[in-house]
Amino acid sequence: MSSNPQSTGGVLARHKVSPGETLIGIARQHGVTLKALQDANTQIKDINKIKIGQLINVPSSLVMVTAATAPTEVGTTPQPAPAPVVSSTPALVTTDSEAFAAMDKRGKGKKLSPLFRERLVMLAEALARRGMQTLITDGLRTFAEQDAIFAKGRTKPGPIVTKARAGKSNHNYGLAVDMYPVVNGKVFTAVPKGASVEFRRAFNAIQDAAGEEAERLGLFWGARFSGIVDTPHIQLLAQSDMSPSECLRIFNKNGGSLDAVWAEAEKRVKPLS
Hints:
By secondary structure, the chain is of the alpha+beta class. The chain has helices spanning 23-30, 34-39, 96-103, 114-129, 143-151, 197-216, 244-253, 258-267; strands spanning 11-16, 55-59, 134-138, 176-183, 186-187, 220-221, 233-235.
């Protein structure tokens, strides 16, 4: 997506804007702060208004922007490790079916809306074409599992990780997943302490690319939430299109049927152009 680095004083390289990219995403990809990127591009008056094909000056600052993280399964956050080195020739899947199999290695994508799963297959393939991979760490959650997560930071030890009680999360209906970057064959839910500049750039670039590709496929990316930004979160529909409360009503009306929820949700999904 970006040109080869060309030294121009305080500018390390120029990045050519691709469809769906944002200035924040570009900053993360190159491992610089948004302010540093703005300072190097004084011609940009509104960070939300950049054009496809526009050349963005990338400063040589090594100040990192850390990706927003969100909780998923207990124990998935890696312990601080020596800074990994990102291979210039990563091992990639070679077929479409392998792309999703790698993304769903833990089997968290099995009990999802069929249409949602279909779009996730397309997402896995799109990332593979870009030389990237993520791992689905959380998919369908039972109401009991949701209550257990909600209790953290309230009645149970640990930080608060969700505002959603049982029945109030898209995860409870197989309409949402959480996915994290795979770097050097390992999944990371956060950038480890002491990680290299190269690692941070790779982690942030993969996380942003997953969201960008999801949005191109008509999915909703958790980075767009108005409250807690949930970058690893992808769901079939925006809350405004079908809320968890509406899902719960349909679920209860049909005797706890996920199929009924899926049928209604899938009717509201816009076809891909």
